[in-house]
Amino acid sequence: MSVESLPARLASARGSRLLRRLRLSAAGPVSLLVGVGLWELVGRAFGLIWLPPFSEVVAKLVELVQAGLIQVSLVDSLKAMAVGYAVSAVVALALGALMAWFPLVDRALGVYVYAFFVLPSIALAPVFLALFGASNTTRLAVIISSCVFIMIQNFRTAFQHSADDELVQMARAYGARRREVARFVVFPAAAPMVFATLRLGVGRALKGMINGEQFIAVFGLGGLVQRYGSQFDSVSVFAILLVVVVIALTLDWLVRLADRRVTRWME
Amino acid sequence: MIATRRPPGARSLVRQWAPPAVVFVLLAAGWQLYASSGEGNILLPTFSGTVSALVDLLREGELWRPLLLSNETMLVGYLVAVAAAIPVGFLMGRFRWLDRSLDPWVAILVATPMAPLLPIIVIVLGLGIASGVVVVFLFSFVYMVINTRAGIRSIDPSLTEMARSFGAGELARWRYVLIPGAMPAIATGLRICLGRAFAGMILGELLMFARGIGQVILDLHGGFQSASLFAVVGILLVEALLLAAMMRVVEARITRRFF
Amino acid sequence: MIAVRSLTKHYGDGRERMTVLDRVSFEVRENEFLSVIGPSGCGKTTLLKILAGLVPYDGGEVLIDGQPVRGPGPDRAVVFQSFALLPWMSVSDNISFGLRLRGVPAARRQARAAELAALVGLRGFESHLPRKLSGGMQQRVGLARALAMDPEILLMDEPFSSLDEQTRLVMQEQLLDIWQHTRTSVVFITHSMEEAILLGDRVMLLGRHPGHVQEILEVPFERPRDRGVVDSDEFQRLRDHLWDELRGMQEQV
Q1: Which among B43, B101, B152, C111 has the fewest CB atoms less than 10 Å away?
Q2: Is B16:A107 a contact under the CB 8 Å cutoff?
Q3: DSSP codes of every residue in B99-143
Q4: What pLDDT is recorded for position C226?
Q5: A61-266 sits in which CATH class?
Q6: Which residues of A touch C52 (CB under 8 A)?
Q7: How far apart are alpha carbons A217 and A223 in whole angstroms?
Q8: In what order do the strands lie in the sheet with C59-64?
Q9: Tell me, what's the pLDDT at C11?
Q10: Complex prediction ipTM
């Protein structure tokens, strides 16, 4: 980067700095539009069976919604995901905290949590299918196994870090009892990581749900995907994919919103 | 935990492994009792049944070929994803405007399940190796980009400043500062990415392609041989653990060299 | 040698604009050691980076041997506060980094690096990695790296402030020794009054809000110098004067 003397610099400085800032903040949305635009153009130009133009996908989605074909599956899927996620979150919070605070529990269970964390949850789907058939139980099992193990590990880290901090010692030195230490030091310190884990878990639960449903290939949004796929109906598959993308982004946004609300409430 | 230099003595080894061993025994015993009691699910194999199925499978040696097929697909997809993602990650880490532009796509790719794309891939590429490779690629690509980008971003800015002060141009800065500095993060990315590739391999096999291990599983499932099915899943678990352990070593080695 | 006239530097835009340096003027003579001291926020580090050609400026002139500064150059070398050593290169490679960038062949680089390692007291450590070295040793590598370029001007940005006090005192003595040999011009930024007076031929005191030259003091001690001068009355007088000025600035906030 070379250095210029006064006149040249001042002339370009103010204008370019403002423009640069504008350009940066617009970059994201612009690139999204460009991407969608490209999709549309390529879809139209090449007429490939597997890449329908964006507008066609949206039209199909509207059609499916109007025909009432999506709503039932959507609600069904979301309900299952909510239940699976809630169960996982509660179990993971409890186990994670126990493992953080009681080394014996950590030693006893850590190996198994790690083992199932490393194994992709979809590998367990055939097992669940064999045991419970093509039922909601199987789907729930897949959802839970896809997010509970990673959440246990992360919750454990969240609580472990705050368990033996300097701040805890400080609070104890000032006469705080266990409950007060928990309330004023441990929980606020753990909060950021707890929310990060919850956010992570939501993404995993969604993926577990779709993976499980596509594997079972009977109900839910995943079931629809498999059905349309086997019919070579790529437009409908993309339509459902669009729904899934929207769900994924919405859920992420919701968790982040909750994060901010709770953080504000705690302060 | 306090780290000591001495190798773990007998007592601390017992302390470390006794609790999980106890848990294992309890779980295995519980499983065995429940499965053989006739009260439970008729399709639930016993622990002993699963173990003997496992031994049979390993002895017959019919698993190795499907496993090899599947893993070949995974390896190819993984290598392509890594080769493609590292340059993208570098550029995104280096040029802020590019990062801002592509970031929404990165966010979407991370949050969205890839499974709905599988039927599309089959429509395009059929049921061969190519589809499997594409699935593995889709699973791993974006994670490698993220880690590489983070690696570039994490470099101490005073190092690039120092390089500039000694006359380093763009290329020299890449060669002596940016690339070596990003290596630890890239190493982490390699590890995470392989885990994702493995997941992609299995998902691809189970949902669509069934060439390798997926075929084995689906056959066993169709034949109601649940003990063997459980055993195969157990083998996949072992592979997952081995891959994870191997990558941790690789990651540590690379990080050590560059930091 | 270095002529700075009415140097001005702003940060930010429009309403948020801050003047970091306001019409700073001074000179650094041939083979002179100039200490620069001032409270935090007086722009001393920015000044150094401008001299190094790393940061652009908005007004005035910065001339080195009559030529305006347009970017980094082989005539100037910087020693950084955080050492800025490349962790993946050995001591020898770090020292010869600047030479490698200029295309000097490997054999000559190694020889020169060995020479400089010996000069700064790191003989035998050439193949060590930075993480194996203490802070003081790392900064000596930084110094050797700068000297390897045979620069006309050495720019040192609070080079000893990351070190503990004992190491710092040792390094000051070392620097006095080394400088006796090389006698390059030096601009040395510090926040320590003792350090500024001990090392410098002159001390430039910068004020802040905005950054400007408050005063330039002559340091009357002869060369070669050692820590002995610290006990003299003259040293105390200079130090007390500096402290009066600096304390006044601190209270201004």
Answers
A1: C111
A2: yes
A3: HHHHHHHHHHHHHS-STTHHHHHHHHHTTSHHHHHHHHHHHHHHH
A4: 85
A5: mainly alpha
A6: none
A7: 4
A8: C18-28, C2-11, C59-64, C67-68
A9: 87
A10: 0.89
Spatial distance between the Cα atoms of C79 and C178, rounded to a whole number of angstroms: 14
- Annotate A230-244 with b (16+ C-beta within 10 A) or e (fewer): eeebbbbbbbbbbbb
Both tokens of A33, joined, read 């539009």
Query: Among residues A237, A150, A165, which one has the least CA distance to residue A198?
Result: A150
Most confident range (mean pLDDT) of A83-87, A188-192, B108-112 is: A83-87
DSSP-assigned beta bridge partners for residue C67: C64
E strand or H helix at C5:
strand C2-11
Torsion of CA C226, C231, C237, C242, to 10 degrees: 60
**All partners of chain B with 3 or more CB pairs under 8 angstroms:** A, C
Q: Which residue of C has its CA nearest to B161?
A: C54
Residue ranges of chain C with per-residue pLDDT less than 50: none
Structure tokens at C79: 């020693």
A40: how many CB neighbours lie within 10 A of its CB?
16
For B61-258, which CATH superfamily applies? MetI-like (1.10.3720.10)
DSSP C94-145: HHTHHHHHTT--HHHHHHHHHHHHHHTT-TT-TT--GGGS-HHHHHHHHHHH
Q: Which long-range contacts (CB under 8 A, 24 or more apart) does C198-202 make?
A: C198/C172, C198/C225, C198/C227, C198/C229, C198/C230, C198/C235, C199/C33, C199/C35, C199/C172, C199/C175, C200/C33, C200/C34, C200/C35, C201/C32, C201/C33, C201/C34, C202/C32, C202/C33, C202/C34, C202/C35
Which candidate, B141, B32, B142, B152, places its Cα nearest to that of B93? B152
Which CATH code, of 3.90.1200.10, 3.30.1660.10, 3.40.50.300, 2.30.30.90, is assigned to C29-37+66-230+247-252?
3.40.50.300
Structure-block tokens of residue C103: 């295309």
Which residue ranges make up each domain of chain A? 6-46, 61-266
C153 in B contact zone (CB under 8 Å): no
- Say whether residue C57 is in contact with chain B using an 8 A CB cutoff: no
Cβ–Cβ contact C131 with B under 8 A: yes
Cα separations in angstroms, B217 against B73, B205, C69, C132: 17, 9, 71, 52
Question: Do the chains contact at C56 and A1, CB–CB below 8 Å?
Answer: yes
Helix or strand run (H / E) with residue C63: strand C59-64
Please give the structure tokens belonging to residue C187: 């601009």
pLDDT digits (tens, 9 = 90+) for B152-205: 999 999 999 999 999 999 999 999 999 999 999 999 999 999 999 999 999 999
As a whole number of Å, the end-to-end CA separation of chain A is 45
Test B259 with C82 for CB contact under 8 angstroms: no
Inter-chain residue contact A110 with B124, CB threshold 8 Å: no
Report the chain A residue with the minimal C-alpha distance to residue C56: A3
**Cβ atoms of residues A97 and A159 within 8 Å:** yes
A3 touches chain B (CB under 8 A): no
Please answer whether residues B142 and B182 qualify as being in contact, where contact means their C-beta atoms are separated by less than 8 angstroms.
Answer: no
Query: Model pTM greater than 0.90?
Result: no
Position A15 confidence tier, pLDDT thresholds 50, 70, 90: low
CB contact under 8 A, C102 and B168: no
Contact list, A256 vs chain B (CB under 8 Å): none
Chain B environment of A117 (Cβ under 8 Å): none
Cross-chain Cβ contact A10/C58 below 8 Å: yes
